[in-house]
């Protein structure tokens, strides 16, 4: 039995412990956007530090103005190459709680459809992803003693809120984080059997806009026909963001967006939409033109309405003209757009559409630009080989509609050319939604994949 | 001193007790639309029953499938004429609670702007109104022993939710409620010095519409450019209800609405908008055409967005495509429109504007039609004389944008021709809004007004 085979066998043997560890990690309510989850964030970071210390890493909880990161490194070089492994331990809010069939922070195992599924917020995005890497380190350490590379681990607590403290951390830990290759362990597979590496990520920023009418709440009968209704104003503005085909109709929004290279477009058009959409209906969504769905998801920007609230939200009737109404939006950007420019275009658009007497209040700052990584890197080739060896199907180089701010920072600030974004999330894991889930077989093969990637890259 | 003067002097002398009684009445959280206020509703009805019993009425709490009414009558005829006095003890929800400067069900007295103001939910709409009538009865009883008419009192607990049980009650108590004249004590003055009788009331129904997308909540990055966003669908539908000038653009909505008689239009155009709008800005509201604001408020129908909710409502960011979004609307109708017809036109409009794959769910039933009362009635003339005597300015016969379902029922079911809708609410009382208020001087003059109206009508 080769060393690699011995480590993989150790992974398989260790599965009950790996699942138990993931379940413990999923009990922390580490929702980065909700102030009352601060204790869950802190407890989660401390527990992860202990796990890494136990593996012989030098681990610390690095404080920021927001939520802390867990930083760790192997005590001795262990190889010629320094590799960074990034994951995030924060999660999206679990609301609406009543839509879950089991409590979101009490992981529930269900045997269904031939799978052992774990239901919890963060089960897929992204606690299983970082845990797969930690469990791969554990198997390596048990069988081989050392990793074949110097590993630096970064576990962030603010990914789901746009990583506001990450730029500071990259500046403060410049030496530690400078690396030959960075593995970003927070991405998805193509299908449940075909692995993928994501080479394009979208940019992202959030914006909250509140329309204030000149009056406070008013009686709808007395003033409905003469006074401004801010819900109507907001609805009008939101409805005019897109044209009838679902394209953004705000002037200047697509400025700087370059056409996709013809070869890439052709390659993406050959992919089967059904394989990646995983049962999600696109009925009534934006129209696909010649470009097809993957160009829309991976390479065309979008403005998405995340939420709206104003006036009476129930339970009873209230015959009121509300004094204000609020919308929350996320902006997904592509190469050629910057958060600053698009935010300013959006705010001008809202202001230009306000009736006399209405006032718009904006909240939102910062954001992340899109990234394209070098698809011809030898590290990508090595990782792709390792993934294919584990899964038995060729690794797809693909885009993503998601955003991982650290990639842009590593490339721009630390000149890390080779960022390898991969992971084992599937489109039907219900990430960012109720009843998020993962399955034990993907956890096992994910850990084995990281064992193989470390082995392949360690040889470079 | 005449008998009338003696009764009026008794009202003045009794003011500290009258204010204390109103304050007690305002402590009951009798919000008819909120299930957890049921206890407040019951307690309020029982307390009012006791108050009327103490005045020598035969009072009962009449149960319904919803909230009870308080019904009472004078034990002996007391005069040739039977007069019904209607008020309602239920109130609108107090939300948003945080916008109140004192708790909405802990009445707070403030001396400000030369007035003694009472702040509480229901202070103006409508507990002060029914209390003014009860206090007028009390002064009459103290000085004269009997009223100069047979009085029937109806205090409703479901006015703010569209009076769903009232039709049953009118049927069940047909004999008791049949009367020569009905006083509807739930309306407003023209200005703080000029009394008014409302001869036109709008109809009203509520509708809740939820747009369901074909999917549940989705990740906004992965699916924003390809899947339906129900907030966008709802915003589009809401934005297309009105045209650019603020008129309803739904085909058939204005069908049956008759033009205002030229003489009435001319009279209304001579009124000063500033006097009735009481500081409410009409900036950015629907455009006034030649008809002027009072025709819009009193004689043109409206569709009003009362509230909207969907997806992330905070506190943190959530990068989600919501699975559904909900709007609440109130429809204010005029003579010639029926709730059934307009509701069906609205639902067809929503269905016709749904994209493929979206589903609309509607909640809402019943409603009230508009009413026009006979302006040439001798009872109106008598009440107008009494009001002018108290306030020193001529009584204005006007319309209202509000709705009081009992008027339509009395006219249609019991053929009560003379319904006199009056009261002492002012446009700046913040009814249906935070920091609702009333003032002690209006309470005093309101009680005195009812003393005089009873006197004048008793002579007929």
Automatic annotation (TrEMBL), chains A, B:
<dbReference type="Pfam" id="PF07687">
    <property type="entry name" value="M20_dimer"/>
</dbReference>
<dbReference type="Pfam" id="PF01546">
    <property type="entry name" value="Peptidase_M20"/>
</dbReference>
<dbReference type="GO" id="GO:0008233">
    <property type="term" value="F:peptidase activity"/>
</dbReference>
<keyword id="KW-0645">Protease</keyword>
<protein>
    <submittedName>
        <fullName>M20/M25/M40 family metallo-hydrolase</fullName>
    </submittedName>
</protein>
<dbReference type="InterPro" id="IPR011650">
    <property type="entry name" value="Peptidase_M20_dimer"/>
</dbReference>
<dbReference type="InterPro" id="IPR002933">
    <property type="entry name" value="Peptidase_M20"/>
</dbReference>
<dbReference type="GO" id="GO:0046872">
    <property type="term" value="F:metal ion binding"/>
</dbReference>
<feature type="domain" description="Peptidase M20 dimerisation">
    <location>
        <begin position="202"/>
        <end position="357"/>
    </location>
</feature>
<dbReference type="InterPro" id="IPR051458">
    <property type="entry name" value="Cyt/Met_Dipeptidase"/>
</dbReference>
<dbReference type="GO" id="GO:0006508">
    <property type="term" value="P:proteolysis"/>
</dbReference>
<keyword id="KW-0378">Hydrolase</keyword>
<keyword id="KW-0479">Metal-binding</keyword>
């Amino acid at each position: 039995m080769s060393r690699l085979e011995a480590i993989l066998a150790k992974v398989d043997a260790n599965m009950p412990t790996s699942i138990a560890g993931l379940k413990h990690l999923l009990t922390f309510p580490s929702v980065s956007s909700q102030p009352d989850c601060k204790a869950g964030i802190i407890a989660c970071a401390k527990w992860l530090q202990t796990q890494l210390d136990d593996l012989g890493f030098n681990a610390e909880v690095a404080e920021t103005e927001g939520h802390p990161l867990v930083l760790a490194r192997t005590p001795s070089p262990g190889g010629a190459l320094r590799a960074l492994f990034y994951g995030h331990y924060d999660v999206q809010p679990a609301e609406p709680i009543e839509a879950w069939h089991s409590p979101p922070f009490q992981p529930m195992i269900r045997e269904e459809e031939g799978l052992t599924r774990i239901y919890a917020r963060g089960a897929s995005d992204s606690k299983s992803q970082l845990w797969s890497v930690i469990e791969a380190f554990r198997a390596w350490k048990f069988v081989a003693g050392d990793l074949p590379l110097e590993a630096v681990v970064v576990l962030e607590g603010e990914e789901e809120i746009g990583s506001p403290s990450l730029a500071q951390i990259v500046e403060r830990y410049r030496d530690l984080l400078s690396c030959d290759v960075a593995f970003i362990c927070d991405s998805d597979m193509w299908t449940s059997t075909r692995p993928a590496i994501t080479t394009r990520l979208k940019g992202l920023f959030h914006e909250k806009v509140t329309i204030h009418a000149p009056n406070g709440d008013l009686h709808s009968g007395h003033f409905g026909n003469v006074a401004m209704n801010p819900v109507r104003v907001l609805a009008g503005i939101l409805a005019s963001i897109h044209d009838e085909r679902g394209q953004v109709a705000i002037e200047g929004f697509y400025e700087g967006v370059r056409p996709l290279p013809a070869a890439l477009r052709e390659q993406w058009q050959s992919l089967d939409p059904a394989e990646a959409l995983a049962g999600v209906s696109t009925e009534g969504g934006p129209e696909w033109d010649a470009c097809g769905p993957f160009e829309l998801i991976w390479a065309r920007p979008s403005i998405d309405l995340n939420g709206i609230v104003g006036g009476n939200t129930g339970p009873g009737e209230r015959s009121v003209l509300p004094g204000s109404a609020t919308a929350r939006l996320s902006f997904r950007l592509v190469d050629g757009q910057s958060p600053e420019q698009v935010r300013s275009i959006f705010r001008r658009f809202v202001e230009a559409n306000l009736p006399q007497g209405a006032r718009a209040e904006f909240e939102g700052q910062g954001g992340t630009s899109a990234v394209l990584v070098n698809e011809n890197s030898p590290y990508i080739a090595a990782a792709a080989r390792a993934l294919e060896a584990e899964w038995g199907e060729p690794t797809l180089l693909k885009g993503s509609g998601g955003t991982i701010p650290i990639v842009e920072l590593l490339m721009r600030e630390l000149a890390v050319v080779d960022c390898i974004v991969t992971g084992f999330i599937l489109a039907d894991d219900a990430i960012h939604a109720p009843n998020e889930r993962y399955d034990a077989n993907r956890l096992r093969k994910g850990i084995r994949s990281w064992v193989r990637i470390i082995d392949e890259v360690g040889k470079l």
